[in-house]
């Protein structure tokens, strides 16, 4: 009997406890997480093909001598820029000065022979006139007349031969002076000269001894290989946009440059596609001006990044790159629907539009920013919350996003598809245009 009573008591106690728990109110649901949202902006965007290439000189000259002789002077500083016709080397002139003086003497001799034959011709003319007068009075025979005529003819022929010798002597003197001028070796093009391969006292062989090289540096080539698919697409775009021309601008970046600050123009495409690689060789030209302290930034042989525009600028939807996420399905972002629920949106990412430059002391370059138009007042004793957020980079979205969408910028870690959020809308502001 006591056991039955104890069991009944325990059952009643458990039922009472369960009833108390059922009547206890549930805890309140946590508030939805706060997120920062921005609406996409619209800006002109241009898409590009990007290639790897290298810089090359537009002109290159090997400095060699036209004559043989001992080198007497080196007149330039190695590794500097030289102007066209600037003196570079001097070869021993003594042998070639002697040849010039000999040619001058031959010319004087030819002039003297001409004067001699001119005098003898005058004498022969006088003899012919005298014999002709004697023939009339029968004081001279016809043989005397024939001899006088023949003598005049011979002397006229000798004069022509002397004149020919004079012309030959003039050409010999010109040749000797030309060869003498080769003892002063000058720059054939303006550019940067390398190290000298020969020094004073060395015997220089004609046409064979490489003395130095000069490369032009004020204007350079940029050379790269483009896939045939890109080239085909570019040709079709060019036909549509520029039926009468095939000139396209290109942009070049070198070294640690974050952007493509150098501008050039395509000027050459090879006449065939390389079947082994499926690429075509393309070349552009760009200027390489003198900067501070007479320094040129670009150098032949440097690695270069080249981008070629696919089309003209078009208005496209852009967002901060921080909004983008990646998954197995590709690139996506979170947007906030009208009921403040999170929606996952698959998008197609287009060309990069802008990237924040590296900071420089004392400079604040124009940049994209997100601004809170209605910042909440700070709590008592607390500093105000930030109302401006710098944007690191901007990309174009070509599909999957609409101008009225609210895209989550901050708070992506708390956002879940289908879950509610408390959005705080900020404005996406592009860089201010420079004042003209």
From TrEMBL:
GO terms for biological process: response to antibiotic. Residues 60-213 form the Multidrug resistance protein MdtA-like barrel-sandwich hybrid domain. One of its GO terms (molecular function) is transmembrane transporter activity. Keywords: Coiled coil, Signal. GO terms for cellular component: cell envelope; plasma membrane. Residues 1-18 form the signal peptide. It comes from the Bacteria. Pfam families: Beta-barrel_RND, BSH_RND. Residues 93-134 form a coiled coil. Residues 374-387 have a biased composition (Pro residues). Residues 220-308 form the Multidrug resistance protein MdtA-like beta-barrel domain. Residues 358-389, 417-436 are annotated as: Disordered. Belongs to the membrane fusion protein (MFP) (TC 8.A.1) family. This is Efflux RND transporter periplasmic adaptor subunit.
């Amino acid at each position: 009997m006591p056991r039955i009573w104890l069991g009944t008591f325990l059952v009643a106690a458990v039922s009472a406890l369960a009833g108390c728990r059922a009547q206890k109110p549930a805890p309140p649901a946590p508030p939805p997480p706060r997120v920062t949202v921005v609406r996409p902006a619209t800006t002109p965007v241009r898409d590009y093909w990007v290639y790897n290439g290298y810089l090359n000189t537009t002109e290159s000259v090997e400095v060699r001598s036209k004559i043989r002789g001992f080198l007497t002077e080196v007149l330039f500083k190695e590794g500097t820029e030289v102007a066209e016709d600037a003196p570079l080397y001097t070869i021993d002139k003594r042998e070639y000065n002697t040849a010039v003086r000999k040619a001058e003497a031959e010319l004087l001799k030819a002039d003297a022979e001409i004067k001699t034959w001119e005098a003898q011709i005058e004498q022969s003319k006088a003899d012919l006139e005298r014999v002709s007068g004697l023939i009339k009075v029968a004081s001279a025979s016809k043989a005397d007349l024939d001899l006088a005529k023949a003598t005049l003819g011979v002397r006229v022929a000798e004069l022509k031969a002397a004149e020919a010798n004079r012309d030959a002597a003039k050409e010999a003197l010109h040749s000797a002076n030309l060869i003498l001028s080769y003892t002063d070796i000058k720059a054939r093009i303006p550019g940067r000269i390398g190290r000298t391969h020969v020094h004073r006292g060395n015997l220089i062989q004609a046409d064979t001894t490489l003395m130095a090289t000069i490369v032009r540096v004020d204007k350079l080539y940029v050379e790269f290989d483009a896939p045939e698919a890109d080239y085909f697409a570019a040709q079709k775009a060019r036909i549509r946009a520029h039926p009468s021309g095939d000139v396209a601008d290109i942009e070049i970046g070198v070294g640690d440059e974050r952007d493509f600050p150098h501008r050039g123009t395509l000027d050459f495409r090879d006449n065939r596609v390389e079947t082994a690689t499926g690429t075509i060789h393309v070349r552009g030209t760009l200027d390489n001006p003198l900067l501070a302290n007479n320094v040129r930034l670009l150098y032949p042989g440097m690695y270069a990044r080249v981008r070629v525009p696919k089309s003209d600028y078009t208005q496209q939807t852009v967002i901060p790159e921080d909004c983008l996420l990646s998954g197995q399905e590709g690139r996506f972002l979170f947007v906030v629907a009208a009921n403040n629920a999170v929606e996952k949106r698959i998008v197609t990412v287009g060309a990069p539009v802008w990237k924040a430059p590296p900071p420089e002391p004392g400079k604040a370059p124009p940049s994209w920013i997100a601004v809170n138009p209605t910042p909440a007042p700070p709590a008592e004793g607390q500093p105000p919350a930030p109302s401006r957020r710098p944007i690191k980079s901007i990309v174009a979205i070509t599909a999957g996003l609409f101008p009225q969408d609210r895209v989550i910028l901050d708070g992506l870690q708390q956002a879940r598809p289908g879950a509610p959020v408390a959005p705080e809308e900020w404005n996406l502001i592009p860089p201010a245009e420079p004042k003209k």
